[in-house]
Amino acid sequence: MGCASCSSGGGTPKGCKNNGTCSSGGCNKLEVYDWLANIALPAGQQPYDIVEVRFKNSRKSFFRNSEGYPLQVGDVVIVEMSPGYDVGIVSVVGELARIQVRKKAPNLKPMETRKVLRIANQEEIDKWIKGRSLEKELMYKARTLALNLNMEMKISDVEYQGDLSKATFYYTAEGRVDFRQLIKDMADDFKVRIEMRQIGSRQESSRLGGIGSCGRELCCTTWLTDFRSVSTSAARYQQLSLNPQKLAGQCGKLKCCLNYELDMYLDSIKSFPKPETKLHTEKGDAYHFKTDVFKRLMWYGYHGETGLIALSPERVKEIVKMNKDGVKPKDLKDFEKSEEKVVEIGYSNVVGQDSVNRFEKNFNRPKGQQRKKKKNNNQGNNNKPANP
């Protein structure tokens, strides 16, 4: 589906069949569309010296272009790290970077921001690509070391620093993990500096990617950046069945898309009566069973009966007002909302072209009749007078 850079940090696209690199197309993971690219700066204004650099997966950071390099989106640059340096791809430059800084890092101090050292040369790019190719094997070896120590943790991803001096291991765990012995073993085997970073289940899914139950790529992988908490009340407001298998995503948590339409449901439910309100009639008390927000219907039923009665919210408010005045209606069916039957416009078979057995007719004549017809035709041709 995605390009190689979506999981490894750079490369030639595979899914989009493009001839360029992932930085030249529109298939970057969490890409930013520069809608200010064609707008020139006012006369005398210097370009903004803060740029956004993208690393493996969705990791991004801001760096200061103190040397004034002519950076463009997609350039591979060497940035300052502690210790050493790292290699990344420029994702946002110019005035759009100013907007991103104001939105994502309002307390950023430009003079204390790490610098862009230079534009990467071919040797540094080859070294960076080599580190990306070693990450998968490194992750498998680290998992083996963790299993040998009986550690309850899952190492989901590894990221090499651009100069191959440090490797960052991303892991998930239910509780606190003492990985001091694991770091010693990995440092002895891998001969690099080790950093362990714990992430949540949602962050793990965003790094690894996948296909959701809707058939599209995961939202957290493609565009979602803030992971807000999702509760079961969001499913209750939307009248969804509390089935964990259907409500859970690839990460095992509740789906983030449960929050997308929640505000619309909350605004619509405000105009509905409270579902715990009972309706008193001469036939008995009616209880609320379910609500359809889109059709604006509320279903009530009597205790011990199987049928449900559909009422509009206005009708329910009318009955509640009658109960407050001490009046009980005879039956809720007198207030039931009748649904209009939709007449389907179809077509009529007037010539029989849609008959099921129209291909079962035998058009072949018996052999005797065919010979007799052929003989009669030959005799008729012989009796015709010749043309003058």
Please, could you describe this protein's structure?
The strands form three sheets. Strands 2-1-4-3-5 form a five-stranded antiparallel beta sheet. A four-stranded antiparallel beta sheet has the order 9-10-11-12. Helix 3 (122-148) packs across helix 4 (180-190). The relative contact order is 0.06. The chain has 388 residues and is α+β, with helices and mostly antiparallel strands. The protein folds into four domains: 23-120, no CATH class; 127-199, 2-Layer Sandwich (GMP Synthetase, Chain A, domain 3), CATH 3.30.300; 206-268, no CATH class; 279-335, no CATH class. It is 29% helix and 17% strand.
Strand order of the largest sheet: 2-1-4-3-5
Strand proportion, as a percent range, falls in: 15-25%
Low-pLDDT sequence parts: 1-26
Classify the secondary structure makeup into a structural class.
alpha+beta
Order of helices and strands: HEEEEHEHEEHEHHHHHEEEEHH
Major sheet: 5 strands, antiparallel
Shape: extended
**Mind telling me the C-alpha Rg?**
36 Å
Q: Percent helix among the residues? A: 25-40%
**Mean pLDDT score, rounded?**
82
- Count of runs of 4 or more consecutive helical residues: 11
The total domain count is 4
How far do the termini sit from each other?
A: 80 Å
- The tally of strands reads 12
